[in-house]
């Protein structure tokens, strides 16, 4: 048997750990593995190489993806998907493991409709895949954001300022939400919660009147740019307001223990699903356990906002 593996969309810490888990589990079970470079773009360009046990040595702790990644516009077309399926057939690749986010899974579903056997593994820092409690890379990104919050808090405190910290996540506020809770942010601006800037500023001023010397506002990128919020907040509070966009540091770095474990379980289970002929699914962590969910169903499961976490954060940061 021969399987292919690719990473697609934004890279995420732990993708390498997942690649390693898939390759090693496959080889252990005498299955050949081909690595497809640069996601679907590399598939279309036949940038495909055989992988062995040594190809994935010493990558468990590395951020990024050794297979590299891309976002292919041509693959999103019918002609692109058809060509992708033809390339896989020409290489004798019977099953394809796709590590990525929702866009990557839509591509996988399109391939499945062309008759390709696919398995998805959720890998994105955004944690915006509704079918999985967590995605590979999210915990590391939150840990990176948390480290930045602590550092920014030092200087914000010293100058009696407000600091708006912008984090990634597309339309999902989870990086801001989770790092905001653990970093003690005084306010959270998230796409899932209607922004009441007057209310937020009022809250910051109440804290100031009670003796708070500084405040941190976590801003999810889906709500706009930190520069605009700095102007608005400073105008309303009359407190000097600075801002920081954490940017791509959130996507890099050595994966955390949680992300490595997720990657090991999901990668191992992906190959087990192939062996058991249970493909056409996404490997997820759901309600604390691991399971496969049919791809078509998985991509329809809406992401549920953790209102409980938001409420706790609002209580703890008064
Ligand atoms: O999906 C991961 C992510 O980092 C998002 O949080 C962000 O909006 C986007 O990718 C940035 O993409 P790019 O690498 O194309 O700038």
Automatic annotation (TrEMBL):
<dbReference type="InterPro" id="IPR035966">
    <property type="entry name" value="PKF_sf"/>
</dbReference>
<keyword id="KW-0067">ATP-binding</keyword>
<dbReference type="GO" id="GO:0061621">
    <property type="term" value="P:canonical glycolysis"/>
</dbReference>
<keyword id="KW-0808">Transferase</keyword>
<keyword id="KW-0021">Allosteric enzyme</keyword>
<dbReference type="GO" id="GO:0005945">
    <property type="term" value="C:6-phosphofructokinase complex"/>
</dbReference>
<dbReference type="GO" id="GO:0046872">
    <property type="term" value="F:metal ion binding"/>
</dbReference>
<dbReference type="GO" id="GO:0030388">
    <property type="term" value="P:fructose 1,6-bisphosphate metabolic process"/>
</dbReference>
<dbReference type="GO" id="GO:0070095">
    <property type="term" value="F:fructose-6-phosphate binding"/>
</dbReference>
<dbReference type="GO" id="GO:0042802">
    <property type="term" value="F:identical protein binding"/>
</dbReference>
<comment type="similarity">
    <text>Belongs to the phosphofructokinase type A (PFKA) family.</text>
</comment>
<keyword id="KW-0324">Glycolysis</keyword>
<comment type="pathway">
    <text>Carbohydrate degradation; glycolysis; D-glyceraldehyde 3-phosphate and glycerone phosphate from D-glucose: step 3/4.</text>
</comment>
<dbReference type="Pfam" id="PF00365">
    <property type="entry name" value="PFK"/>
</dbReference>
<keyword id="KW-0460">Magnesium</keyword>
<dbReference type="InterPro" id="IPR012003">
    <property type="entry name" value="ATP_PFK_prok-type"/>
</dbReference>
<keyword id="KW-0479">Metal-binding</keyword>
<keyword id="KW-0963">Cytoplasm</keyword>
<protein>
    <recommendedName>
        <fullName>6-phosphofructokinase</fullName>
        <ecNumber>2.7.1.11</ecNumber>
    </recommendedName>
</protein>
<keyword id="KW-0418">Kinase</keyword>
<keyword id="KW-0547">Nucleotide-binding</keyword>
<dbReference type="GO" id="GO:0048029">
    <property type="term" value="F:monosaccharide binding"/>
</dbReference>
<dbReference type="InterPro" id="IPR022953">
    <property type="entry name" value="ATP_PFK"/>
</dbReference>
<dbReference type="GO" id="GO:0016208">
    <property type="term" value="F:AMP binding"/>
</dbReference>
<dbReference type="InterPro" id="IPR000023">
    <property type="entry name" value="Phosphofructokinase_dom"/>
</dbReference>
<dbReference type="GO" id="GO:0006002">
    <property type="term" value="P:fructose 6-phosphate metabolic process"/>
</dbReference>
<dbReference type="GO" id="GO:0003872">
    <property type="term" value="F:6-phosphofructokinase activity"/>
</dbReference>
<comment type="function">
    <text>Catalyzes the phosphorylation of D-fructose 6-phosphate to fructose 1,6-bisphosphate by ATP, the first committing step of glycolysis.</text>
</comment>
<feature type="domain" description="Phosphofructokinase">
    <location>
        <begin position="2"/>
        <end position="274"/>
    </location>
</feature>
<dbReference type="GO" id="GO:0005524">
    <property type="term" value="F:ATP binding"/>
</dbReference>
